[in-house]
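Run log, item B.
One chain of 365 residues. Sequence copied directly from the ordering sheet:
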Amino acid sequence: MDTLPIEFIIVSKRLRQVRPEAVTALAQSIRELGLLNPILVTPELADNGQEIGLFRLVAGHHRLQACKQLGMTEIGANIVTIQTVDQRLAEIDENLCRSELNHLERAEHLAERKSLYEMKYPETRHGACGGGKNGIGIRERTENDKMSFSVDTAQRIGSTERSIQRDVRRANNISQEVRDAIRDVASISDNSLELDALASLEEPDQKAAVRSVLDGKARSIREVIRQQEEALRPAPEQTRPRQKQEECEDQNTEPSSASEGTPDWKRRAKDASSQVLAQKERIRTLNQERATLKDRIKALEFSMAQAAAAPRPDLLSDLEKLLGNFERNLQETPDSFPSDLLDVFENRFMDLLLLIKSINRQRDQ
């Protein structure tokens, strides 16, 4: 690790914006413990390929801003060249092609690969300036243009662009401190739904949610979020007939007519009935999707167990669509999934994952 003057570090326009609350939290940690993880930079080169004494930031924007906030003039940094980038990319690709990584480790590997890939090929960054007139407009692709990170990675490790983008988003949205805290907690670090739930929170809420799970106050991150939502939900409004009765009791009088509250009662009963019917319909639809998903998973298990050849493309396509619908329903209507149903899904997916790992190990032998 080297120590570099902060004023010598160049920061390019970045897709991921700096979060002030994360910078403040990092600044407090650096003040108390020092900079535990150095930033990553690469030498800035002149047109003739010679180094000019400046360095371009590759990873660690929040750490750099935190050190600036503390008034520091120097920062610890790891300096990499294109040669070391190629070596590290090869190591990451080898790890990603294996089956030993859990969901968190995979996300971290992909996030690091994205930083290194875009450092090597800066033209592939989202929003990078292209051709067109005066550098403005749409530039036609040529055969020498590099593929985007997600396309290149998907081809190398046999995954999908959507899956890769989702994993990178998980790593980028969960703070380093929280990732280190859950690294050995398999129920979170190796559970994609738990990681997505954690990534949806701000850093202080991430720490509080993990603490609740580790202390046994909640079974999962998703349960912590449900508890917070229920705590913020307003108490149900008292019905008008009840309010009418209380007013009469205070005045030692009887209600003038039992039928006065009837229209309001009818409206509320109708609304409640509609909500119950809608909820039943959602549950029925989810049960159908659950049955279909179980059938598809069984078919995939049978196909993988019986033949070494890859599963039929149409089966993989159907499964991808089905899992996509399932994930969308989880995100849009999480309250429609009872806890016992989610436990069934989670156990089933874990069984399938163990089977896939077992088959891969047998093939490697």
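Observations after the first pass:
- Confidence is low (pLDDT under 50) at residues 129-144, 252-261.
- Residues 2-80 form a domain with the Conserved hypothetical protein from pyrococcus furiosus pfu- 392566-001, ParB domain fold (CATH 3.90.1530.10).
Flagged for discussion on Thursday.
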